[in-house]
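Before relying on records like the one below, remember that each one covers exactly one chain. Contacts with other chains, cofactors or solvent are not represented anywhere in the record.
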Amino acid sequence: MVPPLGGQGVNIKKIRADFPILSTEMNGKPLIFLDRGASSQKPNQVIEAMDEYYKTTHANVHRGVYNLSQRATDQFEAARKTMQRFINAKHDHEVIFTRGTTEGINLVANSFGRKYLKEGDEVLISAMEHHSNIVPWQMACEVAGANLKVIPINDLGELNMTAFAEMVNEKTKIIAVMHVSNSLGTINPIKEITAFARKRGIPVLVDGAQATPHIKIDVQELDADFYVFSAHKMYGPTGMGLLYGKEELLNAMPPYHGGGEMIETCSFEKTTYNVLPFKFEAGTPDIAGAIGMAAAVDYIEEIGHEAIAQHEYDLLTYGTEKLKAIDSLQIIGKANNKASVISFLIDGAHPYDVGAILDKLGIAVRTGHHCTQPLMDLLNIPGTVRASFGVYNTREDVDVLVAGVARAARMLT
């Protein structure tokens, strides 16, 4: 992460008090939760918003003339408006509620692929992609007879932009890249990618799952054609996410799922489809999930993106320097522009063994290939130990981590 501009810092004592799980223990030790990259913890504000909906307002949306259904619909659509503001979409009907990043990418790969991918076409992804931005495109290419091409990375874990430019050609039908690497922490140059693609009329899908907790997203400024992310990475509920798509592309694409809300008229002979956003929202939605995601946005915006960036940059730089002092430790991913993720290995020790020792000390980190197995194969490593920081983490958490890693190094090497 590049150093943020000046501004007010976070009130860490108040923030930590918002997250009830942080006052619990794991294996008899105070919980040190450093796995925000897999899923963030939830503040009371999100929990209470969802709880209040179920206690006082629950009814199906868009379908009832009675007052309770209308109130539920108003809250659900207000959540859509909140998400429109959060990413600065031009229209609220460009905001499609999904079950998460994975479903959003599958929706685009399936629907865009059916409409536009033909035999011999090419889809461009990067070497650092999450499985969720690899497999759907493999499936779409297999159906269409298209080819999947992979942008290489350099030794720092950054995209090779020279190779990228050389790979784009008249066969390239879509570019799909992550905004922030979940394994390496690399923040990719999305505006540079979209500007290059725009001159050639190629749409770009951005996987923003790891970006939305850290970076203020403006899809119009980024000029992304599609932007997808999950609520649970950004202090919201699991099973909820968002697909942003430019109106003209979404209108041109066929529906992904059939039934329920996506229908305008239905007969045995012919069904006509609803307008955006409902065309892509078949069935009863996760109403409470949308309300919870909107509450998470309100929470992030109340703290402020700049304050969050400052705080996480401090944790990243402090943690990196402390961990580098351990002789047998190697950091994986050294991009000049990073989010608050530190992946590392201890010489001679398997990541799982390190993670198991940290677990006994009350420290929750992620170990393994982090759903980026092709990247790990490229780096010729079995996986890494990953510490990923959120707004609720502190330098004291980092100190406990460093002491635990040093202890694991002594035991395993």
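The first strand starts at residue 25 and ends at 26.
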